[in-house]
Design a protein that fits this description.
The chain is of the alpha/beta class. The protein is built from nine helices and eight strands. The protein has an eight-stranded mixed sheet with strand order 4-3-5-1-6-7-2-8, with helices on both faces. The protein binds zinc ion. This is Metalloenzyme domain-containing protein.
Length: 241
């Protein structure tokens, strides 16, 4: 667990809400290569960093695990259609049922599956221009900060650019734009920000594993600042605390 101290945007208070940003294909390898330094460039507040084992190598089952805490063989969500039909309650739905106004901002079909319980979601139309797609996701998050306490979003630029074989520079630039934007939105709204990946990045034959980062930013409170620091926590599938 890595801590960065000083200048957290909540002055020791828990944030007004939580943004959970799932960055598609942001695995531990890419996080260490690009993600951490991008964050360090723009953020000097409290950070906790976890290494998390992803539950699958595809998007739908991984996101379902992040949002339910269940393994794929338990939640059986391998597609958007499965998500639509699933009777298992997920994190934003659980929060909503317990009086925490919650919403999701993601690709249209995926977003609509949450309407079983959530009152409002922001569906974003898929398109060829993935940078523009993520800009719409980020605008949707920004617009949700006023009315919601828990916002889940799914950003896809990194995954698409990796699949398209874009250059390292372009991939880093794309990731930088997303991370800067989401940090700014969280900071403006005084929200706690959680960034995670869903699974290892596909292709490239790089040495990687099934680990993805789970990082918490801002609003972590002053009490944590006096705790002895540990280097890193490893948890499986978000089940362990
Ligand atoms: Zn994915």
């Amino acid at each position: 667990m890595t801590h960065y101290h000083g200048g957290g945007w909540s002055d020791g208070k828990i944030g007004k809400g939580v943004i959970l940003a799932i960055i598609d294909s942001l695995d531990w390898f890419l996080y260490e290569k690009f993600g951490r330094s991008i964050i360090e460039d723009v953020f000097s507040g409290s950070v906790e960093e976890f290494k998390v084992f992803s539950s699958a190598d595809k998007t739908s089952p991984s996101i379902a695990t992040i949002l339910t805490g269940l393994d794929p063989e338990e939640h059986h969500v391998f597609s958007t259609q499965n998500a639509k039909e699933s009777g298992i309650i997920n994190l934003p739905e659980f929060a909503e049922k317990n009086g925490v106004k919650s919403t999701v901002v993601m690709e249209r079909a995926g977003a609509l599956t949450f309407l079983k319980i959530l009152e409002m979601v922001t569906p974003v139309e898929d398109r060829e221009n993935i940078v523009e797609f993520d800009e719409d996701i980020l605008s949707g998050v920004e617009e949700s900060v006023e009315g919601f306490k828990f916002i889940v979003c799914h950003l896809r630029t990194l995954d698409e650019q990796l699949h398209r074989g874009e250059s390292v520079e372009k991939i880093e630039e794309g990731l930088e734009r997303i991370i800067h934007s989401i940090i700014n939105i969280a900071r403006e709204g005084e929200f706690l920000l959680i960034i995670t990946g869903d699974h290892k990045c596909h292709g490239n034959g790089k040495p990687g594993g099934d680990d993805v980062p789970g990082t918490w930013y801002g609003g972590l409170g002053s009490s944590r600042r006096n705790r002895p620091e540990k280097s890193r926590k490893e948890v499986r599938n978000w089940k362990s605390k």
